[in-house]
Sequence to fold (562 residues):
Amino acid sequence: SVSHSQITRLYSRFTSLDKGENGTLSREDFQRIPELAINPLGDRIINAFFPEGEDQVNFRGFMRTLAHFRPIEDNEKSKDQNGPEPLNSRSNKLHFAFRLYDLDKDEKISRDELLQVLRMMVGVNISDEQLGSIADRTIQEADQDGDSAISFAEFVKVLEKVDVEQKMSIRFLH
Amino acid sequence: QWATLRIQKGANKPRPEMQKVPSNGIIERDETPMEKEIARLHQADFEFSDIFYFCRKGFEAIVEDEVTQRFSSEELLSWNLLTRTNVNFRYISLRLTVVWVIGVIVRYCFLLPLRITLAAIGIMSMIVGTTLVGQLPNSRVKNYLSEMVHLTCSRILVRALSGTIRYHNKENRPQKGGICVANHTSPIDAIILTNDGCYAMVGQVHGGLMGIIQRSTVKACPHVWFERSEMKDRHLVMKRLKEHVADKTKLPILIFPEGTCINNTSVMMFKKGSFEIGGTIYPVAIKYDPQFGDAFWNSSKYNIVSYLLRIMTSWAIVCNVWYLPPMFREEDEDAVQFANRVRSAIAHQGGLTELPWDGGLKREKVKDTFKEEQQKNYSKMLVRNGSV
Fold:
């Protein structure tokens, strides 16, 4: 699991972001990180930290969300077969990514939601028609039960060949 | 000088090696560019997995980013007996604590009063000296005396901070009619430089003690002080500076183009204004040794008085100043390119990293143009492959 020094480091990072010094982070605190503010999906990522309807996240919540990005190798050391599935399992990493697309949290990615996320990623550089046809094609290819929306299972199927572990992990140097 | 001996004694004290995480990053940053990362499994244009790239970049930035860390003090590898530089302070051993307590007593009860006295003497002589010299009519004698006064007071003030400065390449020292440009870490930078030469300062008029100093020094020597209202008018500012530079008998202007204090591990964007004035640019690199004291002024965390107090209770201020050969703007260069060229030279000499970010990010939000650029790049990839 996460080492003591890593937790200390992250706590140090948490407090340095916490400008209000009240033990929690708000959305503005995240926005202050320039590299995050210029990320096209910055707002979606920030949103992932805040549970439904809340505007503040404490250190525990912060760590919980970050835990999704722990490398999967870490799990080799703690073989807890009877416990709940670790947050950084392949399945949970995929579910995290799924939730980035699923704007209304109904466990389905609709055409509309996909369009909105695509729009965030491309800005003003692609026309509505072009974007629309990209979305249509993507859904058509992944949709198996014909409801014109992507469920989590269909999402997993589409990405089965992708090395999720490598792409959705952050390694500590120490 | 006994002050220097004091510093050397401090340096020889057993320096306990506490294993600290080096400040070169805590996570492995993947620098693969967007294009390679979003490699295609098949020849489709968009994939659900595209999101992974942005997602991971976002999280990397949350855990550790290049910019915000420059606005807080650098962390040290081995502790220098100042709790302020030890973020993960833990109780290690009795012996270490005893050594630290001795250090505190020495610094606060012994060094501090001494330094405050010296600083007071320095400031007083500066005000009195320059006022006296200012009474004289303009002449060579006046300029000479003014230089003497400025230099002497600077030297006193530097002693007041227990500063040990090494100047390199003195032959490149800024000449009259030029512009001296340096990286900015603290308000002390100015004193560090005036310790070795005379400059015309540029800045805003303040009230209080600072205002008194400004008013008296400008009588002796033509510093350029602006009223707050004048600062807003860029053309006015430029005009006055251009006039000053054009007059070859006037002292070189001292400017810090970053516009704000950075923590001395990197050099941020230079504002192009200083490079549009014309004239010869004399770049200077200032690097503080963090082992003896942290010179960085985190103005959002500490006000000037508590900052000065911290400086005066550190072991010493040790720094290196490199005078770089003069640079001129070339025919086909615009101000921004010239600014970047100078910045590279300074960063290279001082062993600092260069960042393409604006120091203004300390207080303001980042511009949307960067985000738009990323969006544009991603769009190019979508449209290029696809048969849309």
Notes: Residues 83-362 of chain B form one domain. The mean pLDDT of chain B is 75. DSSP finds twelve helices and nine strands in chain B. The radius of gyration of chain B is 24 Å.
